[in-house]
Amino acid sequence: MSRMTLFLVAILGWIVLVAPLGAEVNFSKSIIDSTFAPGARPRHVTAADLTGDDGPDLVLAVLDLVGGSDGVFLYRSDGNGMFTEFALDTTVQDPIRIAAGDIDGDADNDIVVGTRLEGLLCYRNESTGNFSRVVIDGDMPTIHTPVLVDFDGDSDNDVVLVVTAGLFWEVNDGSGGFVRDTLDVLTGISDAGLSVRDLDGDLDNDIVLYSWPGLGIEYYLVSYRNDGGTGFVKDTLDVVGEPITDVFTDDLDWDGDNDIITTLAESNSVQWYRNDGDSFARETIGDDFTQAPECASVADIDGDGDRDVIVTGGNHAIGSVAYYENDGAETFTQRIIDDSQGNYQLHASLDADADGDVDLFVPNNFPFELVFYRNDGPVGGTGPPCGMPRVLTWAYPNPFSTRTRIQFDSSHAFHPGGDVRIRIFDTDGRLIRVLTGERQTNRRRSVEWDGRDAGGRPASSGIYLARIDGEGSGEGGLLVLQR
User: Fold this and answer.
1) Cis before 397? omega within 30
2) Tens-digit pLDDT profile for residues 131-150
3) Chain segment 417-475, per-residue pLDDT in tens
């Protein structure tokens, strides 16, 4: 028995000898919204608590290249998987991608939108879901991907973005004002995307970028390693002969460093680059995606304690929503969630109904709709499979880089209205932090961890174990901190 397993048994009180393989998961499909104007394409959805009730709300970018019915829409969650739509902005021109997080230090989440025609926009959350529009940078041409992250380690969120002219960083002054800084000049690209995570274990954020040349036949995957504040070291990781359509970073093999996941348009394949600490080795997750994979993310779909890969995409109404089940040794099996008619776009994955498993939200361009796939547990079962403790899908975000909010239902594991204490341990069994929550009478509760130890020092990237103790009972699971 490994030290990790012994630790889990001792600390979390779970009698576990061997983690069983995951089971194929059932999903039930429902339509959140299908009222989009003809030609108005739901493009990108993201999730965050935008109304101050600790429930994950949705923000959707709708792009209409023909009829001018562009918009940014907010869908407020009731905490049980039901949503109410509010039109946030129907005058915005060509929104492409969105991000959500606190940019002005007032402890609520704001919305950042990259557009084709209006530059980089922000919708400041004034109070419990009321928003005011602010232009962060109106001179940016065709923003492909904005990423909201604390890039310089000063505890506020900056914006890293790639546009047709280059790679940029909008530096946050601490109150939501921004100053542009150029990271790299790119010429002749027609499409690009990026992901920001710590790649080299030095606790600062690095960048992985893919780009398409305007007329070329080579497509580049490049890293920019942050040297700690004085600059970046650029390195070409791979050059491939077909379009890369997405890049995502996550510790897929749970060895303590972040790997890189990409999707390839022509071979209908999903690749990953295994990070061994000094270099990246390319491996295939699957080459059997239905058609034109568009977006990839990582989550523990089947609750077996390892990281599965979620992929959506399609072309000419032929596409699918799928995940690649990880057997624990990074051998993957494709599981189709939905292969009915559709062009599935940039999805979001989170626990929307507080039942402890990962659900999916997927925009579809054929027909035009926003779809909710509720995770109902394993095929033939009544709940998540038993085994090693899974990632805390009731912590959001998870993995996280600066802070995460641990959510739980007091009627499931705790005496209603009782006090709660959350203890954070590292994998050697050392107590890192104790978090306490006030006595509450509402059923759903949450406690935030800022990724720091008891002395206020930033905890290093890695896997942490959280035990939640209430009146006479407790439960626990895994948190993944990725600086």
Assistant:
1) yes
2) 999 999 999 888 889 999 98
3) 445 678 888 877 788 888 875 544 444 567 889 998 888 888 888 888 887 765 444 45
Tokens of 346: 């940039």
pLDDT in tens, 297-351: 998 898 887 889 999 999 888 999 999 999 989 999 999 999 998 899 999 998 8
What amino acid occupies position 472?
G
Which pair of tokens denotes residue 178?
Answer: 């921004």
- pTM across the whole model: 0.80
Contacts 24+ apart (CB under 8 A), 10-17: 10/429, 11/425, 11/429, 11/465, 11/467, 11/476, 12/389, 12/465, 12/467, 12/475, 12/476, 13/474, 13/476, 14/389, 14/476, 16/387, 16/388, 16/389
Q: How far apart are CA 249 and CA 251, in angstroms?
A: 7
Query: In this structure, are residues 119 and 135 in contact, taking their beta carbons and an 8 Å threshold?
Result: yes
